[in-house]
Amino acid sequence: MTIVPDLLGYIAATLTTSSFLPQAIHTIKTRDTQSLSLGMYSLFTSGVLCWLIYGIVIDNQAIIIANAITFILAASILACKNL
Amino acid sequence: MTIVPDLLGYIAATLTTSSFLPQAIHTIKTRDTQSLSLGMYSLFTSGVLCWLIYGIVIDNQAIIIANAITFILAASILACKNL
């Protein structure tokens, strides 16, 4: 009975984490950040950093891995927006 | 001992959920979606929908509320990108 929710959770985590890869590639390639919200990427990157610390505190490897990857991608997009 | 991680989790969830609000406002106002990646918003919106179903299946109200809000915001941005 726990296989279905576990599988759903892994699919969800894979989708939301990997989604920032096409945006990071698009932004790094084009350097176009006009329609990206600075507010969004500031809040989001801070939030993902909190998730990462949360994962370390509760010692949950899935949360640590997913948020470490998302943090690198979101921080790269934020850096392009600020440069 | 659980207050610190719980608080961190709530801060993290609030930041990552609310971050899509400035992007949604920015996108709806300007209708400029040039630098937004269609791949990102397609994957992300699908992922958030999976998180929402996951929350319903495991009956976790925090996951349901956070992802219902994020889904509305991400889907609005995706709709602007496609229109």
UniProtKB/TrEMBL annotation, chains A, B:
<keyword id="KW-0812">Transmembrane</keyword>
<dbReference type="GO" id="GO:0051119">
    <property type="term" value="F:sugar transmembrane transporter activity"/>
</dbReference>
<dbReference type="GO" id="GO:0016020">
    <property type="term" value="C:membrane"/>
</dbReference>
<keyword id="KW-0472">Membrane</keyword>
<dbReference type="InterPro" id="IPR047662">
    <property type="entry name" value="SemiSWEET"/>
</dbReference>
<feature type="transmembrane region" description="Helical">
    <location>
        <begin position="63"/>
        <end position="80"/>
    </location>
</feature>
<keyword id="KW-1133">Transmembrane helix</keyword>
<feature type="transmembrane region" description="Helical">
    <location>
        <begin position="38"/>
        <end position="57"/>
    </location>
</feature>
<dbReference type="InterPro" id="IPR006603">
    <property type="entry name" value="PQ-loop_rpt"/>
</dbReference>
<protein>
    <submittedName>
        <fullName>Glutathione synthetase</fullName>
    </submittedName>
</protein>
<dbReference type="Pfam" id="PF04193">
    <property type="entry name" value="PQ-loop"/>
</dbReference>
